[in-house]
Write a structure and sequence with these properties.
By secondary structure, this protein is α/β, with parallel strands linked by helices. The chain has 2 domains: 33-145 and 293-387, STAS domain (Transcription Regulator spoIIAA, 2-Layer Sandwich), CATH 3.30.750; 150-285, Transcription Regulator spoIIAA, CATH 3.30.750. It is 44% helix and 14% strand. The chain has a 4-stranded parallel β-sheet with strand order 6-7-8-9, with helices on one face. A 3-stranded parallel β-sheet has the order 3-4-5. Helix 2 runs antiparallel to helix 4 and helix 8 (192-207) runs parallel beside helix 10 (236-248). The longest helix is centred in the middle third of the chain and has 16 residues, at 192-207. The two termini are 24 Å apart. The relative contact order is 0.14.
Length: 387
């Protein structure tokens, strides 16, 4: 792609007057429905014939604050802030993205009369029709949910205790889902303390009979095995992890040999073999490819509330990116995303950008788009969802 996914707004000179932003023109039938540098950012509600356009990408201070309030679950405060800003602040008044975010928040709250009142004010400011109240959005059926009961976590790069998408994500998913897939094919190395913590987490899951499905367990075995040497008293965390991997590989003979080598190296009693349950054995032997996200036209679909650093939908992006030549994220079903999860998403998109793969984010609502732009995602990445 010709443009960066990252947005770095130029600093304003001290004492400079607010930039003059021309009112957006009415989009004709041949208007480009995509966003690119120098073109318009377009958001469409469910109605096909309604568009809100931002001539120049940028966020007013009020819109930034409203996006953060909404991300923090304070929708009413965000709505009141924007309602005041588009009437009283010049920068917000000229920003059609700020107006779009306000209409979005009013629609979410079911505030139809204020919506109609602000629509009249919008016409005065932009000399074009405002987005109409969409009855279909109000009465649309419940959003389809992801298949229940299975989470997904992917470890990539170096395993550390500081990376929230690794061990914390695994703990969260296994605490909230009765089944989970762990993909370690992208793991390249591990800190010794992280290896020890990983082994402890796996041991706890195994002892409570959690049926963890593995992707790349043989790869993990080779990776950890290369880090230990009999007689050298270092990398104890890797030794402990290797023993745990042999447990999950369900190989008692190899485990016993490794346990004796561990005991000789560290002058301790060898650990004992603990057999897996039948369900765990089946899960390990069921070497399926990583769970494919809910897809529509090969889009990665995100739904509902996306919260925290270890949101399973964001974690699943890393595996999806590895298996696809381009990334299109459909966020039309996302109700809210908090700031921490937005940061985790930014990390995933950075991974995409580093691989030179094209990126599109479609269907995102204006108030969430403002949050993503605030953390640095280029406006050129956003597109309206084609219906």
């Amino acid at each position: 792609m010709a443009f960066s996914i990252f947005s770095k707004p130029a600093p304003k000179p001290k004492g400079s007057a607010p930039r003059d932003v021309a009112a957006p023109k009415e989009a004709g039938p041949a208007a480009d429905n995509h966003t690119r540098e120098g073109k318009s950012t377009i958001w469409k509600p469910l109605a096909e014939d309604i568009e809100v356009t931002e001539s120049q990408p940028g966020l007013s201070p009020a819109l930034e604050n409203a996006a953060l309030l909404f991300a923090n679950g304070q929708a009413e405060a965000a709505r009141k802030l924007l309602a005041d800003a588009v009437l009283r602040e010049a920068e917000s008044k000229r920003s059609s993205l700020a107006w779009a975010a306000l209409f979005d928040l009013l629609h979410r709250a079911g505030e139809r009369q204020p919506y109609e009142d602000f629509s009249l004010k919008y016409v005065v400011v932009f000399e074009r029709s405002a987005p109409v109240w969409d009855e279909r959005r109000e009465s649309k059926p419940a959003m389809p949910q992801r298949p229940a009961g299975k989470g997904f976590v992917a470890f990539t790069g170096r395993l550390t205790l500081d990376e929230p998408t690794q061990l914390p994500a695994l703990k969260k998913v296994t605490e909230t889902q009765p089944q989970a897939q762990l993909d370690v094919t992208g793991l390249a190395a591990a800190d010794d303390t992280a290896a020890s913590a990983f082994a402890e987490t796996l041991r706890a899951l195994r002892r409570k009979a959690y049926a963890l499905q593995w992707i790349g367990l043989d790869h993990l075995h080779r990776l950890v095995g290369e880090s230990v040497t009999v007689g050298q008293r270092d990398n104890e965390g890797h030794w402990v992890l290797l023993l745990e991997v042999w447990q999950w590989l369900n190989d008692p003979n190899a485990f016993e040999e490794c346990a004796i080598n561990f005991a000789v190296t560290f002058e301790v009693s060898p650990p004992s073999w603990e057999p897996l349950t039948k369900a765990q054995i089946k899960a390990v032997e069921d070497k399926q490819p990583a769970e494919t996200p809910v897809a529509a036209e090969d889009h990665y679909v995100c739904l509902g509330n996306m919260l925290g650093p270890a949101d399973a939908q964001v974690s699943g992006l890393f595996d999806y990116i590895e298996r696809h030549k381009a990334l299109t994220i459909d966020m039309s079903g996302v109700d809210r995303m908090d700031f921490v999860c937005a940061g985790a998403l930014f990390n995933a998109l950075t991974h995409t950008h580093a691989q030179g793969k094209p990126l599109r984010i479609v269907g995102v609502s204006p108030i969430i788009q403002a949050l993503l732009m605030l953390i640095g995602i280029n406006v050129a990445c956003f597109e309206a969802r084609k219906r």
